[in-house]
Design goal:
- The chain is α/β, with parallel strands linked by helices and about 230 residues long.
- The chain has two domains: about 5-125, Response regulator (Rossmann fold, 3-Layer(aba) Sandwich), CATH 3.40.50.2300; about 135-225, Arc Repressor Mutant, subunit A (Orthogonal Bundle).
- About 45% of the residues lie in helices and about 25% in strands.
- It has helices at about 15-25, 40-45, 60-70, 85-95, 110-125, 160-170, 175-185, 190-205, and strands at about 5-10, 30-35, 50-55, 80, 100-105, 135, 140, 145-150, 150-155, 175, 215-220, 220-225.
- The strands form three sheets. A five-stranded parallel beta sheet has the order 2-1-3-4-5, sandwiched between helices.
- α3 links the parallel β3 and β4.
- α5 packs across α6 (about 160-170) and α6 (about 160-170) packs across α8 (about 190-205).
- It is globular, with a radius of gyration of 18 Å.
- The termini are far apart.
């Protein structure tokens, strides 16, 4: 079986070496880049299956790199690792196409769990048997990460697509927070619960053009996906 190819971008040599060696010990093929300006060249050479990006880098930051990656590949999983702790940094990371966000210092086990979880989600969505799902005026293609309304097509991230798929499964019923967190993040920690709120806000924004569609918060329970 071929190894999973990881593009790892980190400019701290000591941390980078530890992470690279740890991931390689788990049978991952890790290509480390230290200069933000050189990332896309390597990206096109190695065709990675997942990207792990630091944010503060020389010449080009992780946010800009993620935007460049999304211009050529809308579905590859992207994990940000950073010392930044502000909520606005978290939101910006998701806005530019990130799928997950890991704060430094982090444990190697947590990074590996998040990598494996995102790879699993990628495979699950790719194997989705339903081509399109009608959502009011929208058409949702979970296996293509697309939400379409008329001629307008919005590309979704892995987690956006999976969360919307879960809501569709529970249409006009309540999807519990715990179930959504366990299926999408693999645990129901406070940090992941905040991430869920961010994603739900984004999905509401995507769907707001159709007043017949609503994601209603059921406090302390979860969300009800209503399609009139």
């Amino acid at each position: 079986m071929s190894k999973t190819i990881v593009l790892y971008v980190e400019d701290e040599p000591f941390l980078g070496r530890i992470v690279k060696e740890s991931l390689e010990s788990r049978e991952l093929d890790v290509h480390m880049v230290t200069d933000g300006e050189k990332v896309m060249e390597v990206f096109h050479q190695i065709h990675p299956q997942i990207c792990v990006l630091d944010i503060m880098l020389p010449n080009k930051d992780g946010y800009s790199i993620a935007q460049s990656i999304r211009q050529v590949n809308s579905t590859i999983p992207i994990i940000f690792v950073t010392a930044k702790t502000q909520t606005e940094d978290l939101v910006r990371g998701f806005d530019v196409g990130g799928n997950d966000y890991l704060r430094k210092p982090f444990s190697m086990e947590e990074l590996i769990i998040r990598i494996n979880n995102l790879l699993h989600l990628t495979k699950k969505i790719a194997e989705a048997t339903t081509d399109t799902i009608a959502i009011g005026q929208f058409e949702f293609a979970p296996n293509r990460y697309e939400l379409k309304r008329g001629e307008q097509v919005r590309k979704l991230s892995h987690r956006e697509a999976l969360l919307l798929q879960i809501l569709c499964e529970r249409k006009n019923n309540t999807a519990s927070r715990k179930d959504m967190l366990m299926r999408v993040w693999g645990d129901d920690s406070f940090f992941n619960s905040r991430n869920l709120d961010v994603y739900i806000t984004k999905l509401r924004d995507f769907l707001k053009e159709d007043p017949s569609v609503a994601i209603i918060t059921i406090k302390g329970v979860g969300y009800r996906f209503v399609i009139a």
